[in-house]
Amino acid sequence: MSENIIEIKDVWFSYDGDEEGEKLPPVLKGVTLDVKKGEFLAILGHNGSGKSTLTRLCNAMSHPDKGTVTVEGMDTSDEELEYEIRSRVGVVMQNPDNQIVASIVEEDVAFGPENLGVEPALIRERVDDALKRVGMYDYRGHEPHKLSGGQKQRVAIAGVIAMRTDCIILDEPTAMLDPIGRKEVMDTILDLNRRLGITVVLITHYMNEAVLADRVAVMDNGEIILCGTPKEVFSDASKLCRVGLDTTQTGMLCEELRKRGVMLPGTPLTPGDFIVAFQKYIGDRP
Amino acid sequence: MIKEITIGQYFPGKSFLHKLDARTKLILVLAVLIFIFLCRNFYSLALITVFSVVCVAVSRIPLRSMLKGFRVLFVIILLTSLLQIFYNNEGDALFEWKKIHITTGGVYTAIFICVRIICLIFVSSLLTYTTSPTLLTDGLERLLKPLKVFHIESHTLAMMMTIALRFIPTLIEEVDHIMSAQKARGADLETGGLLKRAKAMVPILVPLFVNSFRRAYDLAYAMECRCYRGGAGRTRMRVMKLAVRDYIAFVICAALLAGIILLNIFFEAVI
Q: Would you list the domain boundaries of chain A?
């Protein structure tokens, strides 16, 4: 088996227009991107840059006009494999309210495995396990509408874990949450990736979230303009600036310090890194 | 007033009735409703009334909140029975004045119908009082499975009910948001006559509809992402199994039916 879980090769895609046979301008223009097994990849980009479309292509909800998308060696344009692909790649959407199906937390988590035809006793086991993983086990009998946004998103994540997918794509899962909910969800995602080894693709426009990833891809206008480790990507401030994205707050602080003649060692991107670099800077001074 | 009606609500509990299988309850409630109509005289009616009262007592649902919910209905029941007094002119005359004749037959029917309707309400509302909506839909799905013969997918029906139940609180919340948003823009929802207030509802209903469609689209996408393909090949986490108590409930109801039939045979029919 190849090392890549998802391979996107020179993909072009455009949505159908309202009229028969009409095609809207392409949303994706020759995107090539690999997702490696077990990695945490963040895709950054503005609204309308084609990030969400990429999600739809990865779980066979849409098919590329040109180029190929393969999931674990299976071509997404093969309609017979659609179901198989969706059982390997789980998706968590932005709006927590619109993706919860059942009116009890544990029943919603069970929805995926039930669709897969898993044995009842095994579903029970998986649901309990998934809810414990995201820290929502105590809420298993609750009604979803009484939970906070962050809790609902964690339930949605549990719903994907219970399906035992190899890869989770999260499409701006924190966009509608408050800071506390955002932190809960990010902690859960990191935990899944680090401890369970589930491949995570996080689509976001928050720099502070992208920094935590192993690799960052920046999309603009249907193309991938930058791809690499967070350090590589965020140090290219001029290119980020050109597409209207900022570097992280810490990155901006370093930039301002640099302008004033304070040269910190390395390129710290998170507050933790910054403190270490700053202490080193102070220590080095005579 | 809508908030006062408790019919259709669920009161969580651990009574014998709560623990019964949803399928058992669905079948037996339907059966008892038919039994109520089988009663032909006051003896069998008394039997079924006692049965209903015992059921309510066993369910341990506070009678106060139950009666509170029925308050609106009692007016309707009283009206219906009063009308019966004047309609039925059989039996001995009790009271006569100009064109109004009140006879024993009329009074009997009035009492009979009054008691009958009250029993109907109590028994049928016990179903939803003691069964959670999810269990109820689950039970219905399994009971309606034989309808496959007529090409009706019980799974589809149950899934629609589940989604409807799931989205009721979400939509109520949304109405609240939209109302606040329109009020903030100066919409007047509280004053004016009935027609004016009904008109004021339009700017609330339109965004609600548009949003509902968007939600439906999102939900369908989410369901497909989670490998939903309809009922075929689908398993369920909760296994429904009949326990001893379910068989006991069936035996009790059979005894009830036997009792009603015997009382109907041995005593003269009133209605």
A: 1-88+192-233, 248-286
Q: Give the one of B162, B215, B228 whose C-beta lies nearest to A98's C-beta.
A: B215
Q: Are residues B8 and B105 in the same domain?
A: yes
Contact A103 B218 (CB under 8 A): no
B163 and B254 housed in the same domain: no
A103-143 pLDDT, tens digit per residue, is 889 889 999 999 998 999 999 999 999 999 898 999 988 88
Q: Kindly state whether residues B18 and B139 are assigned to the same domain.
A: yes
- CA geometry: angle A222, A225, A230, nearest 5 deg: 125
Give the Cα separation of B171 and B255 in Å (integer).
Answer: 45
Which of B134, B215, B234 is the closest to A114 by Cβ?
A: B234
Q: What is the pTM of this model?
A: 0.79
The total domain count for chain B is 2
Question: Any bridge partners for residue A6, and if so which?
Answer: A35, A71
Please state which CATH number belongs to domain A1-88+192-233: 3.40.50.300
* pLDDT tens per residue, range B91-110: 777 777 777 777 888 888 88
The rounded Cα B229 to chain-centroid distance in angstroms is 31
- What ipTM was estimated for this complex? 0.82
Instruction: Say if CB A14 and CB A25 are below 8 A apart.
Output: yes
Contact yes or no for B237 and A91 at CB 8 A: no
Range of the domain at B202: 155-225
Verify whether the Cβ–Cβ distance B235 to A98 is below 8 Å: no
Rounded to a whole number, what is the distance in Å from the CA of A230 to chain B's nearest CA?
29
Q: Which of B133, B162, B229 has the CB atom closest to A115's CB atom? A: B229
Cα separation, A58 vs A75, whole angstroms: 10
B253 and B129 in a single domain? The answer is yes
Residues B134 and B29 in one domain: yes
Mean pLDDT of B32-59: 91
Cβ of residue A159 closer than 8 Å to a chain B Cβ: yes
Number of A–B residue contacts, CB under 8 Å:
93
Interface test with A, best of B142, B160, B217, B237 (most A CBs within 10 A): B237
Sorted by sequence, the CB contacts under 8 Å of residue B148 that are 6+ apart come out as B154
Is B31 domain-assigned? Answer: yes
Among residues A211, A215, A286, A283, which one has the least CA distance to residue A252?
Answer: A211
Residue A262 neighbours by CB distance under 10 Å: 12
